[in-house]
What we know:
The protein is 25% helix and 24% strand. It has 13 helices and 24 strands. Strand 12 (234-242) and strand 13 form a beta hairpin.
Amino acid sequence: MNKDEQSEKQPRIGVFICRCGLNIAKSVDTAALVEFAKMLPGVVYSEENEFTCSEVGQQSIKEKIKEHNINRVVVASCSPRLHEPTFQRVVEEAGLNKFLFEMANIREQCSWIYLGQIERATEKAKHIVNAAVERAKTLEPINKMKMTANPSVLVVGGGPSGVEAATRLGDLGLDVYLIERTPFIGGKALQLGSVFPTDDCGTCISPCQNDLHRRCFYRSPISHHPYVNILTSTELKKLDGHVGKYIATLTINPRFVNMELCMACGKCAEVCPVKVPNEFNLGLDERKAIYLPSNQAMPRAYVIDPQSCTKCGQCIEACPVDAINLEEKPREVTIDVGAVVVATGFETFDATGMFGFGEYENVINQLKLARMLDMSGPTQGKVLVPGEWAPPKRVAMIQCVGSRDPKINEYCSKICCAIALKHSIAIKQQLPESEVVIIHKDIRLSGKDYEDYYYKAESLGVKLLRGEVEEVSKLQDGHLKLNIRDEFGDLRYVDVDLL
């Protein structure tokens, strides 16, 4: 039967109800559902199976399609994410176009929700099957098409995910354009120092091609990969086209320093008179208007911040290779690609106004603490109290700030507990006499070896207090007072130097 014949024929729908053992049958009256389906307009056959996905169930579908001249199939069972490809294959093997198949989810969206409520579950299952039958009537056969795809890829985002994607795609022989809107690739990973649970360098990526071990991406093949073109200070302005053939319009913003000429000698920064807070180190130190954010920055060439540069020209005079051009303008380019990979990363939650963050200098976030703990960071790896710049004696960490909160984000971030444990271990190793307390709703660790962090923190004396912080206030001596409602409902007070 060709496409036109399948499309023009009056729908003859077969409905196959799955009991799924007791997963569905425990809540849904499947026999009643079969009888209901038989009465629906367009349905010529309906049956129930113990496990429709089994070989017996699949064979039954094939036989009934031929026996009853069925040209549309509805299977009421589990989620299409699980077995839609299975039943599409069965339908196709029976001679029908695989897109003349519709799946009704009466397990995850019905029986599991109404355990022990047979009447409600059966009634809802009837609605789901009825909707699937109505949809099946409108289905048309679709044939596969082969299209020639442009053998090049645009990767948007220069963090570890984007770098690894670009490297692996390049290893396959595809031309790759890796664009990053900031002047340097690396993303947040450059600021982390180390990552859990192995405490490896935050910028490591998996082994690529002939590598036997992981490498920091600034030592990986990405910088000199023959198939990867890195475009920093670049944004995707427009994307036109279709799958396999896209036209991407890119805006390349000026960095005012020629990357091919710059030797990263730093003489330009030495003479620059402008100092501004260093956003890379979250304001823990200052940088010049012409700067390199990190020794691990890539590309390793200075960049000028146009928002703070006064165009005094001193950097031009100091540059020994004439790499600086203060008159450089933005430019627009178009590239042809066959696919786009979006690896745009994330932004850190802004906790301003919560628990004194943004109000008290000694209330910081975990990313700022990570910059302190980084040996190449602004404090050379030392944990210091901002303002006092002395090691803290008591440190507290509040968990679930901005998450697991119906007013902000209901979900768990999944990483905050591990980050807090990692940093608390680092603090105790550096300052054994200090007190570190983690205030949490509960500790959630999901991953291999993550539990070891928990036990290691406990063995070092990190205190884990279950409860919620109700108020943070500043004492006259500059310390912070935390009012905590513990898991028993009792009010407790904790004084700390650093939060």
